[in-house]
């Protein structure tokens, strides 16, 4: 679909029906695939031929949805995972093993923070947490001989810190590492991190891509740009024979496809966090309207951010699309057509006022969800981030009074009216 605009790719890419075939992308709801000869099946297992044999590794419906996301990101290859968490885990674990080290932005999603600082630590992979706004010289100090990748978010959930992608890409590359960017909040409609030097992109497709709160899922996209073979000792998993595949060397056999092929044929085979084909089908339906919805999410969010800014009971508002915001210039550079539909704000009454207001909402429900067509609200310090200490909260850019408002695609006037009446309780 090269040459087409993103909104067209959203609708048309992935599935190309032949004569008399279904117009809508079909769900291939099958665990296995049939072959005529034993030899042919053997070749598939040796990665000598490409084809489907078992849905834990690959499924045609998943691949069609992944292909659409790959085109939206202008990437080389992509794969779906069962969740955003699985995407983050595989993206890092595909190039890191016990003894390796990761540099990560402090403002990443809470689940990513736990995964890298606690769970992967138990696997022997250590992580240094850095302030994404720190100057380059400061960030340089976090790198070690064994640092294998840098991880950050385009727009941090929920701190709404906008990443200076070029700064982070330069930094990572100066230390012979790829930059992995979680692009969940901006979506490829508003930002293409590859354009600014990122090497790998991850998504929680559970958010805007699905958009309807129907299916948990994730995606990894590889730009194909990082030259693993230039550092064979550092990325030995990609550049030396894989004994579990009769000694295949991924970079030699698959070139630019090495990273995604290894993640599929090795990590997915062994760890099995595959997305259900039914979820990939739902994801594809969500993707069809992604461009349309992002326009409305951002239009609504800007109006609501302006309303909150002018409200007497509001202490502060953080929305990168708001002129005067700390990240406004970075947002203009990397996301000129809009950022996301998520706003963070605090009330003058602090934590207690946040609770009182949220209990009175009628339209905007309290939900552990974000980036959805239905407006919802959450108080991270009491909900998603409650396992963090106050110190960690501040480091993550999450003030104890921060309310995360995920603006949906309802009529903005109705959302504003709901917020107005709820704030009367404060
Ligand atoms: C939700 C989220 C994740 C985790 O995704 P799941 O699909 O819930 O596993 C990762 N990164 C960001 C930015 C998120 O918002």
Distance between the termini: 52 Å
The count of DSSP E runs of length 2 or more, i.e. the number of strands, is 12
Helix content: 25-40%
- Strand pairing plus helix content: what structural class? alpha/beta
Largest sheet features: 7 strands, mixed
In the predicted model, the low-confidence regions spanning at least 5 consecutive residues are: none
**H/E element order:** HHHEHEHEHEHEHEEHHHHHEHEHEEHEH
Into how many domains do the coordinates divide?
Answer: 2
Oligomerization status of the protein chains: single chain
Given the C-alpha coordinates, what overall shape results? globular
Bound molecules: pyridoxal-5'-phosphate
Could you tell me the mean pLDDT? Answer: 95
Spell out the CATH superfamily of the largest domain: Type I PLP-dependent aspartate aminotransferase-like (Major domain)
Question: What report would you give on this structure?
Answer:
The protein is 38% helix and 13% strand. The longest helix is centred in the C-terminal third of the chain and has 21 residues. It is built from 17 helices and 12 strands. It has a 7-stranded mixed beta sheet, with helices on both faces. It is an alpha/beta fold and 426 residues long. It binds pyridoxal-5'-phosphate. The site of pyridoxal-5'-phosphate has 16 residues, from helix 4 and helix 5.
